[in-house]
């Protein structure tokens, strides 16, 4: 017997039914079959092709009794009326090289193609809504997946990853009709080099590309509105990310540990940046935060040591604890958040460990500076406080003990919430420049009156009471005229 066709009247095929039929080369399984017992075609060593037409088969063997174990299968044709492929269906078919899941299939079971080491190419049809855990586990020869499932909701789990051990998988093409990429979809595909995301995808699930460390670039299309938790965490080879202009939420840890990433532009559509979203992106040197962002989560940019400058946009109302902690390369911050009410906490300030931060510019539309905002920025030397600031919270500049110049542009001294707004030595040694007409007000205002050196400045922020002097050795220095007691001019 070289071929057999199981008729449509048959509903089950027993275990070991064709055990050892070594001459069998071709099998057709009829559309009414709902169960196939373990080892049904065990060691049919010449079997190379199967036409699988069972529309709603529920069971096919088990983890230790594969239906086609020991066969030479190279071709599986899955019929256009098949709705689900059961667990373990083609497990261990090592000679199989290519599989197309037709559009009729809605469910692919667990371990279905597990151990099919010869499989190089898979196309997943557009009706698939679930793919079981370990479905393609240890398909070590698999290089390309064409994923066309428009509304797939489930793809394995944390413990049973669909493509675990697919060490040769380099290319994933996500079709233009796909609407979402499920959680864990391509988790751990650590040889993945190329990903194309179709232009209908609306959401990228949690852990979707976690640990895909050889991926170098990704374009997130304009259709995407959310990027899930840890979606690209640990993609350390990623150097370029384009975030589409419909994304509203970047999930927690979404790009955490992407140490190769050098720049990121967060579009104006984004309203929230999740906790640890870019944590440990140590190569990041340039960040643009879109104007619609209202919240920046805790540790969002912690340990981004390459970041040199930063602008906080107008509508940010909250910045989480340690949001920019240990951004040791940060030298300048432009803070434009007009109504920010929360910035870190006393023990976890937003800019803790930013020891190189020397210049802080607080914009003219900012009305209040929250508690602890820049606490512990020990490298700060110059602060400009915009002309609309009316209140400064508790301990905002505590332990910032290197401040030399403070420019407060408001003619009315801002209200300070506590007596330790600044480090104690700052009151004695720093120069406070205020509008000329307001010098006396600052000298009598709570907290501001503690400054020893309060000086007037003109509208451009320059003190009218300074003089630049060229010294004998050719160098120049600037003196505050208020401090000069005597001038001797020698004519030589």
Task: Describe this entry's structure for a reader.
- With 492 residues, the protein is mostly beta strands.
- Helix content is 2%, strand content 26%.
- The strands form ten sheets. It has an eight-stranded parallel β-sheet, with no helix packed on it.
- The longest helix is centred in the last third of the chain and has 6 residues, at 424-429.
- The radius of gyration is 33 Å and the shape is rod-shaped.
- The termini are far apart.
Summarize the model shown.
The chain has two helices and 40 strands. The longest helix is centred in the last third of the chain and has 6 residues, at 424-429.
- Report the structural category: mainly beta
Rg of Cα set: 33 Å
Mean pLDDT: 93
| Terminal Cα span | 121 Å
Spatial order of the strands forming the largest sheet: 16-18-20-22-24-26-28-30
- The portion of residues forming beta strands comes to 25-35%
The counted number of beta strands is 40
The major sheet is characterized as: 8 strands, parallel
Runs in which pLDDT lies below 50 for 5 or more consecutive residues are 459-464
Helix content: under 10%
- Overall 3D shape: rod-shaped
Number of helices: 2
